[in-house]
Design brief:
Number of strands: 17
CATH architecture: 4-Layer Sandwich
Strand content: 15-25%
Binding site for NADP(+): 39, 45
Function: This reaction introduces a second double bond into the aromatic ring system.
Strand order of the largest sheet: 8-7-9-15-10
Radius of gyration: 22 Å
Bound molecules: flavin mononucleotide, the ligand C=C(O[C@@H]1CC(C(=O)O)=C[C@@H](OP(=O)(O)O)[C@H]1O)C(=O)O
Structural class: alpha+beta
Largest sheet: 5 strands, antiparallel
CATH topology: Chorismate synthase, AroC fold
Catalytic activity: 5-O-(1-carboxyvinyl)-3-phosphoshikimate = chorismate + phosphate
Helix content: 25-40%
Family: Belongs to the chorismate synthase family.
CATH class: Alpha Beta
Keywords: Amino-acid biosynthesis, Aromatic amino acid biosynthesis, FAD, Flavoprotein, FMN, Lyase, NADP
């Protein structure tokens, strides 16, 4: 299974095409819209999220509530396009630089300058339109399809905020998946402790007043993955490495950790590795889960715990110094609008890109033309490893 996305941030629409899904998977647009709505929430988003109401249209691949096995295409319309029809239209546009809204002032931390150098764009709008995290809506749509597939296989994926501006959200490790989901779905900045939640929002508001931005840490937990998904035999079949790539591909993500992650560097082996145990009901299991559910590029059968680090948003109301590519003069640009913190939304994005990689690996490992047969194959495999 693979997917592609297309679409510019202020263009007409975002398109996602997923190829390689099994036939006969139950799928409706509600499965996807729920995820899209969650991605739009969270304290610290800018005015754009008030304009957009992300709803998907399934334009192929589904009939009467079930996948056909043919490519699935999903469309999300950009409501903001109506304000940008000339600037984003396909026909040549006349007028002065201001009318055409040509961008010649690159923002440090965004893709503007490097993208302009690479593709030879003297108008950096040609870069920012596609490098914008608007594209993550299309990725969430793909991930929502993957999550639906996983859900029907008894696998649940949940993403939530772990830290914003140095403030730790509550440790959710002991909570049931249902409770984790309630917390992350209500509003992704939610924590169990209302005081911490308020302090996070205060920090975001303060950063916004200061013309600054804020990053944080997101976490994804996965329950129900059987052991042995992924592979040790080749670098590109290691599931943890695919997940790491997918997480780092999210705009502004700069790090990924599995389980205790970087803390493993300061510990002894006896404090890091998870001892193996067995009982009749569960089969093999681990007494601890410090490695976050991965060994040798494969799942261990324990919950997957994955963290991602998001840097602060690059577009600042109090801008950093840069150089105009036309005049070569230094400048301090003022900006029109931006998010000041998008960590809650990014947690939802991470949940969905992880889900896609998990579903993709499962489909690689089991025959999957027909979803009911895939489901049976997974059930048989679970039983086989329980009795191993
Ligand atoms: C959900 C989400 C929303 C974002 N919103 C903004 C924004 O409003 N302004 C901005 O400059 N960057 C925003 N970003 C980050 C940029 O898209 C990102 O920093 C940029 O594409 C450069 O890529 P890099 O940071 O991965 O190097 C957002 C990222 C995410 C995940
Ligand atoms: C549109 C989304 O996020 C956008 C991501 C983004 C960026 O530079 O990454 C910049 C902003 O776009 P605009 O300049 O139109 O306000 C965000 O709003 C979205 O998440 O749907």
């Amino acid at each position: 299974m693979r997917y592609l996305t297309a679409g510019e941030s202020h263009g007409k629409q975002l398109t996602t095409i997923i190829e390689g899904l099994p036939a006969q998977l139950p799928l409706t647009r509600d499965n996807i819209n729920e995820s899209l709505l969650r991605r739009q929430k969270g304290h610290g988003r800018g005015k754009r999220m008030q304009i957009e109401k992300d709803l998907v249209e399934i334009t192929s691949g589904v009939r009467h509530g079930y996948t056909l096995g043919s490519p699935l295409s999903l469309v999300i319309h950009n409501d903001d396009f109506k304000h940008w029809t000339d600037i984003m239209g396909e026909d040549p546009i006349q007028g002065n630089k201001k009318l055409r809204r040509i961008v010649t002032k690159p923002r440090p931390g965004h893709a503007d300058l490097n993208g302009a150098l690479k593709y030879g764009h003297r108008d950096m709008r040609n870069v920012l339109e596609r490098s914008s995290a608007r594209e993550t809506a299309a990725r969430v749509a793909a991930g929502a399809v993957a999550k639906t597939l996983l859900h029907h296989l008894g696998i649940e994926v949940c993403g939530y905020v772990k830290e914003i501006a140095g403030l730790q959200a509550d440790d959710m490790s002991e909570l049931s998946m249902v409770d984790k989901k309630v917390i992350s779905e209500e509003s992704p900045v939610r924590t169990l402790d209302k005081k911490i939640e308020q302090r996070m929002m205060d920090k975001i508001d303060q950063a916004k007043r200061d013309g600054d931005s804020i990053g944080g840490i997101t976490e994804v937990c996965v329950e129900g993955m059987p052991a042995g998904i992924g592979s040790y035999v080749h670098y590109d079949r290691k599931l943890d490495s695919r997940i790491a790539g997918a997480v780092i591909s999210i705009n502004a993500f700069k790090g990924v950790e599995f389980g205790i992650g970087f803390d493993a560097a300061h510990k002894y082996g006896s404090e890091v590795h998870d001892e193996i145990a067995w009982d009749e009901q569960r089969g093999y299991y681990r007494k601890t889960n410090r490695l976050g559910g991965f060994e040798g590029g494969m799942t261990t059968g324990m919950p997957l715990i994955i963290k991602g680090v998001m840097k602060p948003i690059p577009t600042l109301y109090k801008p950093l110094q840069s150089v105009d590519i036309e005049t070569k003069e230094p400048f301090h640009a003022s900006i029109e609008r931006s998010d000041s913190c998008a960590v809650p939304a990014a947690a939802v994005v991470m949940e969905h890109v992880v889900a896609f990689e998990l579903a993709k690996m499962i489909l690689e490992q089991f025959p999957h033309d027909q979803f009911p047969k895939l489901k049976q194959a997974i059930e048989d495999y679970r039983e086989e490893i329980r009795c191993f």
